[in-house]
Every structure is written in structure tokens, then in C-alpha cells.
Amino acid sequence: MNRLVGRGFQPITSHVKPDGTRWSVKEKLLLGLTPQEYMAVQMRNPFNWLLWIIYLVGLPVLVGRFIYGLGWATHGSYDYPWGLFLAWGLFTMVPLSASGFMMGTTVELFGRKDFKPIERLGLLNGLLGYLFAVVFLQVDLGQPWRLIYPMFVSLGPAAVLFLVAWHVATYLSCQVAELVPAYAEWMGLPKAKKAIKSIVLGLTVAGIILSTLHQGALGALFTYAPGKVHPLWYSSPFQWFHFLNSAIFAGLSMLIVVSTLSKWFLRWRCDETFKKSLDNLTVGIAKGAALALITYLVIKIIGIAHDNDWEYLFSGWGQWFMFEMTLGVIVPLALYTMAVRNNSATLARVSAFIAVFGLALNRINTALIAFNWKLYQEIPHWREVVIVITVYATYIVVYRAVLARLPILYTWKEKA
Amino acid sequence: MKKIDRRNFLKGGLAGGAAVAATGTAATAKGAGTFGGYPDSMGVLVDLTKCVGCRTCEAACNKEQGLPAPEKPFNDTSVFDEIHEGGQKRRTTEKAYTVVNRYDVEGREGGPVFRKFQCNHCQEPACLTSCFVNAYKKTPEGAVIYNPKVCVGCRTCMIACPFYVPAYSYSSAINPVVKKCIMCYDTRLKFGRPPACVEACPQEVMVFGKRTDLIKLGHQRIKENPGKYVDHIYGETEVGGTSWMYLSDVPFDKVGFDTSLGNQPIISYVKEFLTVVPMVLTIWPALFTGFHLLSNRKEALKKEKETKGQEV
């Protein structure tokens, strides 16, 4: 598409075609191309070929998981009841999607309208991340068709997972509502946009409450296993705060990552406002991420001091922990700070990629590597890995499809 | 406005108190109070010194619970030499709710120690408190039972169990459920009868009775046989106490018991977070709406000035 635009193609930005007639929904879905042109564009993209290969291998395995059961797709371990599906799909995807409530808060609550060009990308990153976290959960649950049981059939309100279930469900609806304006513009439904505008502050505050609690609750889930998670990754009073705090820089870093990827691969879809303001906004977000990182570093050290875990730092586990903290926290903290000082968006972007990796490392460490540290190390089954890649590929496909269409990276023009 | 006199004030206070009593306690009782177990709950005291590793209990359990036939027959003692993931001995599975393991303890007269284990039926079970569909129940008789009809299969109970007891029927695609010992609740305990394994034991390793009586009995045995037993009943206080308890003549950590679990029920570690929840729910709305008003104050003032200017 970038090449097409280079040759003078104009992507859709309003209801009206250059010749004065209105775009039909089908034409909008095909990005204003003819079906033949659309197919040709898809075939030319080497990334799509990679996706084909992933689906060719991954789809049969994914289907197999539902036909032959979890015991076929995973090691079916009694000692490691949670594997890669949750370690990656839930515990990593959800913090990386914290950008939704962060951007909502910045723009709508604190009135920083200068962040408006990237607000919707933050919201979409949140919505899709949560949506696919639920998809991953559905792959992992023994009986996914009973997903609504904790809501309506049999309630266990004192359990942490009960809170996670309710909050993720409510927050998903909240995020859908927050993105209704983008959809309404694209479909031409001005009333829906107006309705959301009138409740946007309520939605934003609800988003903060729900995010605080369920990001924290994901950490609190591990407080059920005090003896199983290695003490360096476990702290019963601070676990929820460690998870919430790291979600803040993770969500912001992920937003920088997706905006960078959009800038590279979906350049045709970004309008001038987005492209021009992106560098400044990236540095602005870097500032927020740096603040969250320094808070996280301090509270992690306080956690170690509070539980008196110093002796563990000098074991092999301690070295692994220091590696995680250095690469995942101290390095991005230093890079972000330098980026803010030198006003360098490039440096902030490098830092964002590292911070996202660091967060993933922390969550996988907590859920898999440092879990059962007194027993043995579980290495996920290859089918489990294939399913994770397949579902994540679908996440990217949906993400890309929405970005190419809805006014996320560009501003919708009511008049051509 | 109605004048508030002392009488009305008291009335209102009482009504408010009653409302809190009616709604508040019911909603928070699980999260806030300590439970400590039912007074007449039953239990089993296992004396490891008496066990000879005949595996009769395993066979009785298999029959009583209608479990599939094992790969090796119950009189095959080669299972004691099995080594599973990470050098572990056998553990409970979806096909075996109780297993006996052999431990070679150096310097012990009379050979190796055999240890039977199964669900310990905690006083405040971690599985129960972690379940978001309330599938678990601690019965007044002491058993921790499970309702497979509402289980979603999140397996948090398996994460939460400090004894690594619950297993999951991963092999089933249609109806996988948690599988664990229920102390023969449906078929025996409910009617006041001891579990099948207890009754089947030829060595009288296990004593079935009221938990409070068993604790007395355990301490009595320790006292009456000076130097024989370790002066501790495993399960009397561990993770808040368990219905199944153990006596041993060798240190418990030498025979597969986790002695680092502490005496707090698992839920007490989670409570620190659970107390945060209502605070966030009540404080955040006002706090953040306040932030919004503060950060928009300049703009609001500007607008006000503008409109005033127009009026004048």
C-alpha cells in the first residue's frame, strides 16, 4: 500500500469519493480498491506469506486442541497447571494493553489535548490486547463454553479471579464504547459519537478503576502460591502494585512500539497530523514511561527489603533476577531519560522495544520460570508454542485490518 | 429541613447499622474473617511408623471411587522406584487420588519410611478460596468436596494448593474436571463412616475420628512413647490446619513433607490485595474526577470570563 500511495493513490478519509459520490461499505472495506487490486496488494505483501505459513501449520493444531483436549496440545502438567497460553496470552498481553486507560486518562481526564493524535491508537491497542487475552484464555480454559459461569451461574466473589473476570468483561465493554466514535465516523453514525462524547469522562474514570484493580489482580493471583513462586518474584503485600506499576510503563512502551510499526508499515494510512506530531508525542510518552520505571525500580527494591530477600540475590536465581531488572528496567529507564533529555524519539523507540521485552520476561518469569522453583523447569510443548504464535498472528491481522480502515491513525473528514 | 433531635439521630443510626449488618457482613465474611474450621469436623491421623507400603489403601480408593485400573497392579512394589519429572516420586493424578511413596532415610532402624498422601482437607482450603465459581465446599464433616458441574477449568485451585494435590483430567476434550480425594464424602463420610482407605488398611496406620480428638490422641502417642516420634503433628497447624494429620519418627522434610508452608491459611496472603479492592472502588471515582476538575480549572475560568465579558 505504501507503494500505491507513492504512485498517487488516495486512501479513504471521508464519506465522499473524489468524484462526489459516497463510498459504499463494501468499497470502504476494500480500502477504495477494486477486488482485483485489493487481492494483488495482499499477494505482494511478503508478511502475508509468512501469515499463510503460520496458519497452514497453526490452524490444524489449534483445531486439534479443541478436538483432542488440552492433554494433546500441552504437557497437561499437574504441577504447572498454567502454561504459555496464560503466561504470554494473559499475564503479558494485558499489561501491554494498559495504553488504553493511560491515553484516556491523559487526554480526557487531564485535558492534554496535544496527545489526541495518538489517543485512539492507545485505545485500540488496549481493546485488541484485552480481546485477544480473552481468546488466549478461551484456548486455555478446560471448558471455555462455561466462561460466563462466574458471572451468572455460580459466583465465587471472594476469589481474585472473580474480580479479574468481571473487570476484564466490564473493561472490554468500556473500551468498545470508547472506540465507538471512530467506528461511528467511519460508518456515518453521528448520533452514536455524540452519545459517547457525553459519557466519556465516566468511561475514563471507570477505565482507571477497572485497570488499577485487574492489573493488580493479575499479580495478586500469584499470592495464592506463596511457596511456589520464587521469593524474588513474589511479595504478598506488593505483588499487586508491582504488576500495576509495571503495566503502566509496559502499556506506554507498547504504544510507542505499535506507533513505530504503524509509521513504518502503514505509512500510507497515517495522516500528516499523526506523522508530524508523532516524534514529539513519543518523547512525551517516554517521559511518562520513565517516571513509571523509576517508581517500579524503587518499589521492587522495597519489596525485596520488606520481605528480606537479599540473600537470594546472590544465588543463581538472583543473577537471573538482576538480569531481568537490568535489561527490563534499568536499561530502558536510562534510555528513556536520555531520550527525554535529548528530545530523541529514535532513542525512545529503541527503549520501548526493550521495555516491552523486559515486561514479557518478568511475566513469563513469574508464571513459568520462577514458578515451582523448588521442583523442576517446565518447557512448553511445541504445540503450545505453535498455538500461541497462531493466535498472536491473528491479533496482528485484526490489528492491521482495523488500522487500515477506521480513523485511528488519521482524522476523518466530514467533508471531502 | 427536618430538625435532627437525639431520638431521630438514634433511630437513623440503628437503621444504618442494621443495613450494614444485613448487607455488609454477608458480602465480606469470606474475605475478612478467619474461619478456622468446623468444630465437629472429622479427620484422620496417619502414623507413618506403622505403614509397611502394601498399597492396600490405594486399591481401596481406586475401587471406592470407580477409578480406571492402574498400569501396574496394586501389589507391584516397583512403583516405589519410579522417578517422575524433576526427580519427583509419584504424585496424585486424575487416576489415583492417593499414593504411597517410599523414603529411604539414612540411619533409621527398621528400613525405609512409607508415606501415604492424598488431599489433606484443609480447614481453610486454598483451592476453595481461589475458586471463582465456588465449585469447592468444606463440609461440616471436614471433607473438601468439588462440584464438577460448575467448574470452568481455570485450574487456579491447582496453582493455589500448597500440597500439589488436585489433578485435572486433561485427556478429556469435552468434560475435563478436577480430580482429587473427597474423603469418600458421597459414599461414606456423609453417613459417618470412615474413608475406604482407612478401613482397608491392615496395619491400622490411620485413625478416623473427630479432628480435635485426633490432635489429643497424637500428642498422647508422642508423650507415651518418649523418643519415638518427632514432637509435632504435621497438619495440626500447617496452612491453618488440615483434617488429615501425620505422626512420624523421622523429620517430616525427610519424607516428602513441605515444612516451609507456615501456619497461615493461604487466603491470608491474598487478603492484602483483597482489602485494596473496596478502597480503589470508593476512592478513585472522587479522586480522579477531582483531578479532572483541577486540571481543567484554568480552561473553565477562561470560559467563565469570556461569557461574562459578553454579558457586560
SSE blueprint and pairings:
The complex is a heterodimer of chains A (416) and B (312).
Chain A: H1 2-6, H2 25-29, H3 35-44, H4 46-68, H5 70-73, H6 84-89, H7 93-96, H8 99-109, H9 116-140, H10 149-153, H11 160-187, H12 190-220, H13 239-265, H14 272-307, H15 316-341, H16 345-369, H17 382-405
Helix pairs in contact in A: 4-17, 8-9, 8-12, 9-11, 9-13, 9-17, 11-12, 12-13, 13-14, 13-16, 14-15, 14-16, 15-16
Chain B: H1 6-32, E1 42-47, H2 56-64, E2 99-103, E3 113-117, H3 126-130, E4 136-138, E5 144-146, H4 156-160, E6 167-168, E7 178-179, H5 196-200, E8 206-210, H6 211-224, E9 244-247, H7 267-274, H8 276-295, H9 297-311
Parallel strand pairs in B: 1-9
Antiparallel strand pairs in B: 1-8, 2-3, 4-5, 6-7
The oligomeric state is heterodimer
> What sort of overall outline of chain B do the alpha carbons produce when their principal axes are compared?
elongated
State the low-pLDDT regions of chain A, or none.
none
Amino-to-carboxy terminus distance of chain B: 37 Å
Q: So how many helices of chain A?
A: 17
Largest β sheet strand count, sense and barrel closure of chain B: 3 strands, mixed
> What's the helix-strand series of chain B?
HEHEEHEEHEEHEHEHHH
Please tell me what the overall shape of chain A is.
Answer: globular
**How many β-strands of chain B, per DSSP?**
9
How do the SSEs of chain A run, as a string of H and E? Answer: HHHHHHHHHHHHHHHHH
